[in-house]
Q: What sequence folds into this?
């Protein structure tokens, strides 16, 4: 394998994410052939707000997916090595997003600097001077040289260039869409187009300004805040989706079993979820995460790289969050199964002698899918918000994992500073708000389209 | 009624035993006390003597469930399971890592927790229901639509933002109240106002939207049409008929929370430096004080179960048709 410039790395969370995506694709293909499901999705597609939210979500998912293609870069071969047989790879695990953002990632300053600044945020004693001055940044605005009078003009120029680029790309996309006659079936294309414009404008401005400045400033160790915000997206998406994914099989199986079989099986399953749900969620999560930390800390030999350890902790957090949230879904599914069990088509199947397992799989499960889907999209936004709170409490993701929670947590320490370091907080909260708002709006539309009660 | 209460209390026993066994398994079986000692003392350089001392200080140097060395009933009682888990039923939570009695500490800290949680709860309920009624009164108008959009936007904002933003605006920019702290007596009011307002504000979005759905479901029913048909003004329909009939779904979600108010709020208390149970829990989590976390898990479940019982009882007050037997 000497020709490879990179060595692909598949973290467990990446694998699960790709499993999740293939499941969604498979379900989508299956749903195309079901009239009722196709009609429900068509209803979502005609809803302007839902399609605008879906556009925003798609951008976030794209960034998250780019950040899930991990690799280890190949190192320069040493003098003694035979380049044909041995290849050395860096210990550091990077992603495709890291490669795209190499500039942002590598241009770290010494410490805090405000958005678009040319100097550090705090005064420091310079080498050949007794006075304390604001030192120049190593990268931010370095193209200006010694003459700083053109700073504002340069920022305005770059900004307008970026915005113009955004408009240009948007117009090209619109032309392309018109040529290909997108949206003949009543899809709310106009909403998608209107949403794409501000997204492209922001992208254009960020790319153009980001080439010369730190658009959102830098944090305590000098890392670019825009880079940190983009990297946090993957963590948020993973926690929002994988948590539901890992708890779903158990919740569906137990819910249907309890509702259909009844008797002592029902009693046992009800006892199980009543017991678990009677423990307050945060405390259960805190206790479980503490114990998981002990396991991880006492077994350092399980993980080859620190990325693997952080990844294991992220997955364990998803499992623990799933453990606390499956009870609600299981209860809903049990109630619905109780109702379905008494309907004619199930009774007919029983009369024909179809086995219990086959009835649950063929007749009950498909009729519960809307509940599963609704809970999947409804839980997402709550989980993204929960990650930030849990990281603050100290039972969230690994401190080395970049997430909205860890960003807020480190920025919080600096609130007492005068003047305030506000940019990390504002960046983290804005990204989180956009993601969660889009998810909430999309979830509402999906619920309205799929809930048989609300369509009446 | 009394028979019902007694039966419900008896139902609670197996659930509490389940919680107890679960926490025991989580804290002592998933990890051995040796692992916990190594974690707290530092994984690398730790001598077996130090681990022994750590375990002896906390009473973790006993066998887990069966003490073969002891005679008679002591074989069962002189174990970690009995001394740490079974004793919790008697209100004995042991000592925290700083040597203080946990049960006593919990008693002391309930007051400050309630001082924040109770006003937040009552005021939040009032504001959210009023807002929801207002939206329902103007249903299917631009005002209703704007209100729902506002609710969705407000529930999409992280709770941390409300606290950090509120502290910054009210305490740092306007200098109205101290940024954090706590004192007993009437003096506490100036420390309590901001956390209560922030708590109410942060909760409006999701709860007002939920109440609005409940009211809208009620408003489509026949009795509402009858009430309107006989000429009642919309105001009377809403307050006398819809609000009353919506009580059952509202109580289901609300009453269960009341007992857990004793637990306090983790975030609010730690941001505002209130010495309540919430900040106690956060400190314990950060200091990895396993005994305190375990006690809080147990108390939390007890309070939740009490809440479920209260919910059932409240139905009989809200709806005379409900008979518990």
A:
């Amino acid at each position: 394998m000497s020709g490879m410039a990179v060595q692909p790395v598949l973290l467990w969370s990446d694998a699960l994410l790709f499993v999740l995506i293939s499941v969604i694709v498979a379900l989508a293909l299956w749903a195309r052939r079901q009239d009722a499901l196709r009609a429900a999705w068509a209803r979502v597609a005609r809803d302007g707000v839902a399609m605008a939210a879906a556009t925003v979500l798609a951008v976030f998912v794209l960034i998250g997916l780019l950040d899930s293609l991990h690799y280890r870069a190949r190192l320069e071969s040493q003098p003694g090595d035979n380049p044909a047989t041995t290849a050395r790879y860096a210990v550091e695990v990077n992603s495709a997003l890291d490669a795209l953002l190499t500039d942002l990632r590598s241009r770290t300053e010494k410490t805090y600097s405000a958005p678009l600044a040319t100097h550090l945020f705090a005064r420091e004693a310079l080498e050949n001077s007794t006075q304390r001055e604001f030192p120049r940044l190593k990268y931010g605005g370095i193209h200006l040289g010694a003459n700083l009078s053109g700073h504002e003009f340069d920022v305005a120029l770059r900004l307008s260039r970026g915005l113009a680029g955004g408009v240009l790309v948007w117009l090209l996309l619109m032309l392309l869409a018109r040529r290909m006659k997108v949206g003949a079936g009543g899809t709310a294309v106009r909403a998608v187009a209107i949403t794409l414009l501000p997204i492209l404008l922001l992208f254009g401005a960020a790319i153009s300004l980001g080439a010369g400045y730190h658009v959102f400033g830098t944090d305590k160790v000098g890392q670019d805040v825009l880079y940190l915000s983009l990297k946090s997206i993957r963590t948020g998406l993973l926690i929002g989706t994988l948590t539901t994914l890992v708890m779903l099989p158990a919740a569906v199986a137990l819910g249907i079993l309890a509702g259909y079989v009844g008797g002592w099986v029902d009693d046992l399953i009800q006892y199980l979820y009543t017991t678990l749900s009677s423990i307050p969620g945060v405390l259960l999560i805190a206790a479980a995460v503490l114990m998981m930390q002990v396991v991880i800390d006492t077994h350092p030999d399980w993980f080859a790289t620190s990325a693997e350890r952080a990844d294991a902790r992220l997955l364990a957090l998803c499992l623990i969050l799933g453990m606390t949230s499956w009870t609600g879904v299981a209860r809903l599914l049990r109630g619905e199964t109780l109702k379905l069990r008494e309907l004619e088509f199930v009774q007919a199947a029983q009369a024909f002698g179809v086995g219990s397992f086959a009835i649950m799989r063929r007749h009950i499960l498909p009729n519960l899918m809307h509940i599963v889907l609704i809970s999947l999209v409804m839980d997402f936004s709550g989980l993204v918000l929960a990650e930030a709170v849990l990281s603050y409490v100290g039972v969230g993701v690994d401190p080395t994992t970049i997430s909205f929670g860890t960003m807020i947590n480190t920025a919080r320490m600096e609130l007492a500073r005068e003047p305030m370091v506000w940019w990390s907080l504002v960046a983290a909260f804005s990204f989180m708000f956009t993601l969660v708002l889009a998810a909430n709006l999309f979830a509402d539309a999906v619920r309205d389209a799929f809930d048989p009660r609300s369509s009446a | 009624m009394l028979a019902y209460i007694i039966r419900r209390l008896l139902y609670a026993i197996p659930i509490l035993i389940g919680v107890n066994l679960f926490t025991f398994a989580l804290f002592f079986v998933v990890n051995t006390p040796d692992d916990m000692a190594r974690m707290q003392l530092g994984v690398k350089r730790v001598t077996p003597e130090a681990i022994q001392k750590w375990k002896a200080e906390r009473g973790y140097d006993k066998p887990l469930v069966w003490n073969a060395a002891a005679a008679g009933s002591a074989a069962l009682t002189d174990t970690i399971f009995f001394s740490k888990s079974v004793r919790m039923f008697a209100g004995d939570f042991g000592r925290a890592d700083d040597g203080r009695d946990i049960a006593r500490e919990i008693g002391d800290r309930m007051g400050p927790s309630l001082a924040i949680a109770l006003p937040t709860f009552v005021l939040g309920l009032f504001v959210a229901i009023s807002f929801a009624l207002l939206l329902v009164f103007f249903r299917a108008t631009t005002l209703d639509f704007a209100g729902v959009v506002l609710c969705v936007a407000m529930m999409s904002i992280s709770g941390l933002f409300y606290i950090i933003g509120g502290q910054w605006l009210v305490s740092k920019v306007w200098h109205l109240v101290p940024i954090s702290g706590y004192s007993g007596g009437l003096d506490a009011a100036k420390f309590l106002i901001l956390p209560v307002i922030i708590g109410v504000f942060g909760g409006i979005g999701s709860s007002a939207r939920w109440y609005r759905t409940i009211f809208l479901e009620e408003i489509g029913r026949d009795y509402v049409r009858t009430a309107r048909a006989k000429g009642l003004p919309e105001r009377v329909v809403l307050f006398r008929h819809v609000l009353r009939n919506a009580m059952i779904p509202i109580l289901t979600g609300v009453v269960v929370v009341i007992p857990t108010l004793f637990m306090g709020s983790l975030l609010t208390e730690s941001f505002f430096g209130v010495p309540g149970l919430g900040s106690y829990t956060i400190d314990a989590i950060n200091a990895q004080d396993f005994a305190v976390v375990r006690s809080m898990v147990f108390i939390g479940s007890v309070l939740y179960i009490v809440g479920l019982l209260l919910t059932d009882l409240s139905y009989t007050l809200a709806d005379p048709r409900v008979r518990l037997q």
